[in-house]
Amino acid sequence: MKLSRRGFQGHRLHFDLTVIKAILVILGVAALMFAAVSPAVWADRTSLKPGVNIFTPEQDIELGKQNAAQAEKQLRMLKDPKVDNYLNDLGKKLATRAPGYKYPYQYKCVNDIAVNAFALPGGYVYINRGAIEAADTEAQLAGVMAHETSHVALRHGTSQATKAQLTSVPFAILGGIVGGNSAGGLLAQLAGSFSLNSILLKYSRSDESQADVMGTQILYDTGYDPRAMAQFFEKLNAETKGKQPAQFFSDHPNPGNRV
Ligand code: ZN
Questions:
Q1: How far is the CA of 234 from the centre of ligand 1 (A)?
Q2: For the chain, which end, N or C, has fewer CB atoms within 10 Å of the first or last residue's CB respectively?
Q3: Concatenated DSSP letters for 147-189?
Q4: Of 161, 89, 147, 148, residue with least CA distance to 119
Q5: What is the pTM for the complete model shown?
Q6: Quick one: what percent of the chain has pLDDT higher than 70?
Q7: Mapping DSSP to helix (H, G, I), strand (E, B) and coil, where does residue 124 land?
Q8: What digits encode the pLDDT tens for the residues 176-193?
Q9: What tens digit of pLDDT does each residue of 37-73 get?
Q10: Which one-letter DSSP state was computed for residue 132?
Q11: Distance from the CA of 143 to the center of ligand 1, in angstroms?
Q12: 3-class SS at 106?
């Protein structure tokens, strides 16, 4: 009786150790699986890259700089250092999370109540006072700014200019443009003739969805709720029902489709 009891206890102890070992093995396997799976989850993230472009990133900056000077003459700039500093701090925090070429991003406020924002190549981002006022939270404003920052990072302006140029230039000269250094000459030509409503700001539908996706990724990576961008669209959509849509939507696709 005594022996069998000891034997029983011994068996229990052995059983407990086996269970503990089994748990440790399961935990170890789970840890290995997690380590193996998490990069895969990360790789599931939509990876976006700039499209066809005959310009260099330096030329993006040059083209943006010239158009920014022109834009600031035409628009009513708020010119309040407190507001511009705030936008710059927020914008640069977002821009460090933007992939690709590190443009010298700068953010300025336009004294216009229309809910709108736009970005020129090379990192010149403009946010209307109306967009700041319409946002309920910093994350919502950051969403609009992250969207515009993504247009810059994905080089949508000069990519559109490239496509327009490639389709309008006779095939014989095309080789020269792509192969030679005539992008510089083309740049001078574009800088001289382009206005604000130029091709630089006429993004395609796919450009807009790309900026929405990358903007959401930037929001997440900066530590903001990535849903904030969609929330802002929903809010503005609800507020403008039956009325004139906010400027940001007349320049951009239907908010309901974007959410
Ligand atoms: Zn856009």
A1: 16
A2: N
A3: HHHHHHHTTHHHHHHHHHHHHHS-HHHHHHHHHSSTHHHHHHH
A4: 148
A5: 0.74
A6: 63
A7: strand
A8: 444 444 555 555 555 555
A9: 445 455 678 899 999 898 999 999 998 998 899 889 9
A10: H
A11: 11
A12: strand
